[in-house]
Amino acid sequence: NRRQFIALGTASMGTALVGNWLYQEKKSSQPKPLSSANLTPVYQSSNGLLELDLEARESLVNLGGQQASLLTYNGQIPAPRLEAKPGDTVRIHFTNNLEQPTNIHYHGLHIPLVGNADNVFLKIEPGKQLTYEFQIASNHPSGTFWYHPHLHGLVAEQLFGGLAGMFIVRGELDEIPELKAAQEEFLVLQDFSLDNRGKRADSAHMSLMMGREGDIIAVNGQANPSINLLKGGLLRLRILNASPSRFYRLALEDSAFYQIATDGNSFSEPIEVNELLLTPGQRTDVLVKASQESGQYRLLNLPYDRGSIGMMGGGMMGRRNNSDTPIVLAKINYKSTVESLTLPTKLAPIEPLPEPQTVRRFELNHGMNPAVGMAFLINGEPYDRDRLHTQVQLNTIEDWELINIGVMDHPFHIHGNAFQVISRNGIPELLLAWRDTVLVKRGERVRIRMPFRDFAGKTVYHCHVLDHEDLGMMGNLMISA
Ligand code: C2O
Ligand code: CU
């Protein structure tokens, strides 16, 4: 079966420009890819500099065996993986060859929010170029971050076209011996909707209120890829939900995950979990221990109901997120033996934050707004690019109460600074973790605590169901020095 063969070799590839699993034939005797269309290059920094050319353009790609015309960075689905270390300078010479304006957001990175860094107010017109340049601080956490377009009104459409890639910061965490010994793989989850000529489906036919979802689910641009692992081996899977609206509820058949990190930051120690709910924007970093017998684990996507609009505004029907049967996203095969690898016991310590200076409330809902009609609202208002919705002081700590009074789940994302979840519906959250995107389920009240550190300037917070964001569920945040 053409769609299912792709095999993986060992991880821990060397230096400079190396490939992901499809490039592995250079180092091992794994099967060759059937098509070069899905090669995902990796750009790694050297001598403190990560520098590359990045071009956004529509390209013909091989998407899980079928030809598709998608929006790409450098012709790749997913986009090239970028890897830098704390202390490195990043310089990206970006060209916009799309037919619309765009820009780039570096999701989860703690870097400057203004100038040519993580500035989502930049607008790069078709045919224009811009060089992004920023430094990753020497104390930046190691983690799995990502990049994608962020021009308000076009974010969902451009992401759904395929524009998304991982941005890895390799640091201390990755030096832990057990993690170094593990086989590392990266899974970028995306969904697409194509017509019978391989063109992107017209958004006029999609439920933008629910958030667009495609019927094709791709893992690294492939349909159910396979990962080959050694018996007794340890697999480190870094997973990104790069879909604009689809939630993934992940489980392994016959095995648990050992989660070591959320969005961009590790836990203090691995935590055994049977399921991972990954909302749009979120990442997870998990270990999988292969048994000593040979066999296969299937990575499943289980059904999840993220709420629906039901009957409203003239009988618009919501729909369920996933079908009722689990979807196999990938297969993990384990065969030849290695001596059994062990899990790490300690990762990076996390300190709880001191009490906040300020507490704010954010009510999330959809509804009618006199100015714009049906919209997604924060505190009753849709996004207005000319307003400063929230003003905070640099070097302070705030609690934000996120209250979902609507009928759909909203994953809430804040740019530039990570936060800790303090409680859900008043019940203290026991797991200490840093996140940049948190799910606020319908009817739920989530309290988060956030230090505003290092970078002043204007940025945004929003729902990461990107149609909700484009339809108004976003606010401007001014961090004043
Ligand atoms: Cu990944 Cu403001 O977004
Ligand atoms: Cu939402």
Summarize this, please?
The chain has helices at residues 155-160, 177-181, 466-470; strands at 18-19, 41-44, 49-63, 66-73, 81-84, 89-97, 105-107, 129-135, 143-148, 165-169, 183-192, 216-219, 226-231, 234-241, 248-252, 257-261, 266-273, 275-278, 283-289, 295-302, 327-337, 358-369, 373-378, 390-393, 397-404, 410-414, 420-424, 427-428, 437-440, 445-451, 457-463, 474-480. It is mostly beta strands. Strands 1-2-5-10-9-7 form a 6-stranded mixed β-sheet. It has a 6-stranded mixed β-sheet with strand order 12-11-14-19-16-17.
Q: Mean of residue pLDDT? A: 87
CATH class of the largest domain equals Mainly Beta
User: What is the percentage of strand-forming residues?
Assistant: 35-45%
CATH overall fold name of the largest domain: Immunoglobulin-like
Q: Number of folding domains?
A: 3
Give the N-to-C terminal Cα separation.
58 Å
Show unreliable segments: 1-38, 311-322
- Name the ligand types: CU-O-CU linkage, copper (II) ion
**Count of DSSP H/I helices:** 3
Radius of gyration (Å) = 21 Å
Please tell me what the overall shape is.
globular
Helical coverage, percent range = under 10%
The CATH homologous superfamily of the largest domain is termed: Cupredoxins -  blue copper proteins
**Strands of the largest sheet, in order across it?**
1-2-5-10-9-7
Largest sheet report: 6 strands, mixed
* Strand-pairing-aware structural class: mainly beta
**Name of the CATH architecture of the largest domain:** Sandwich
What kind of oligomer do you see? single chain
**DSSP, total strands:** 32
